[in-house]
Amino acid sequence: MAIGRKSLRAWALRTALRKGSDMDLGIKGKRAIVCAASKGLGRGCAEALAAAGVDLVINARTAGPLEETASVLRDTYGVSVTAVACDIANPEGQAAVCAAGDGADILVNNAGGPPPGLWSDWEREDFIAALDANMLAPIAMMKAMMPAMMDRGWGRVVNITSQSVKAPIPVLGLSNAARTGLTGYVAGTSRQVAPFGVTINNLLPGIHDTDRAVALDGGVSRSQNISIEDARAQREASIPARRYGTAAEFGAMCAFLCSVHAGFVVGQNILLDGGATNATI
């Protein structure tokens, strides 16, 4: 029986997480909010936390895939999962997620990236939309959730940003701008909350085997008049690891940063890009 690519990815994700689930992260029974978690890197983070015994509040804009993900997580890991379908980029969505996740110990901020293009394509409203989703929404979520974490003396915040904050990607100018703004905010804020047992760190993904990669490869395919497969092979050849990352790998790093073992990791920007960003520091 043939296995579809998406089904194969889901199977590989669950298998990888089960193999690594015997490491005690010390967070069983804690509660986490994971934004944009119905698929891709957000789902990878939700899976890894669920495998560690963390109860979840997950968010995405579309109810169907979100509820399907929630059901899989409950059945696979035996944790409580609350699904909140809304747009995390607007205040109403943020309020709904924060209400459902009241008292959460862990916050994973995530949102889809802005569309690629040229500097001449973007107007003020394009930048405002990018800032709302990729800078201001994570800041609003942190402001809402961290005071209670500080009162309890323990909390973990992980923001999913992009390798572009280390090395700008020309066609992703909207993302470069918004995510770099969030990075600057975290740099100062993380030092202010660390004395209260709350850590904030950023995960910077390079290209991973997600729908976002398919969209980016599609853009290259159209612009260069080559196949999607050739576009992917071309991009893989530019990565020292010679492959795309997986959501399971990304989720495992997120879960570690949320664990009891990462209390001395503060305000860091951690690349997961297979070596694609050519930098010494």
Topology overview:
Elements: H1 5-20, E1 31-34, H2 40-51, E2 55-60, H3 63-77, E3 81-85, H4 91-100, E4 106-109, H5 124-152, E5 155-160, H6 173-193, E6 198-205, H7 211-224, H8 228-237, H9 247-257, E7 269-272
Helix pairs in contact: 1-2, 1-9, 2-3, 2-9, 5-6, 7-8
Based on CA inertia axes, which overall geometry fits? globular
Number of extended strands: 7
Give me the strand/helix succession. HEHEHEHEHEHEHHHE
Give the uncertain stretches in residue-range form.
Answer: none
Task: Supply the helix-strand structural class.
Answer: alpha/beta
Q: Major sheet, described briefly?
A: 7 strands, parallel
Helix content: 40-55%
Structure write-up:
- The protein contains 9 helices and 7 strands; from the N terminus they run H-E-H-E-H-E-H-E-H-E-H-E-H-H-H-E.
- The chain has helices at residues 5-20, 40-51, 63-77, 91-100, 124-152, 173-193, 211-224, 228-237, 247-257, and strands at 31-34, 55-60, 81-85, 106-109, 155-160, 198-205, 269-272.
- A 7-stranded parallel β-sheet has the order 3-2-1-4-5-6-7, sandwiched between helices.
- It is an alpha/beta fold.
- The protein is globular and about 55 Å long.
What is this structure, in a nutshell?
The chain has 281 residues and is of the alpha/beta class.
Keywords for this entry:
281 residues; single chain; seven-stranded parallel sheet; globular; alpha/beta; 49% helix; 9 helices
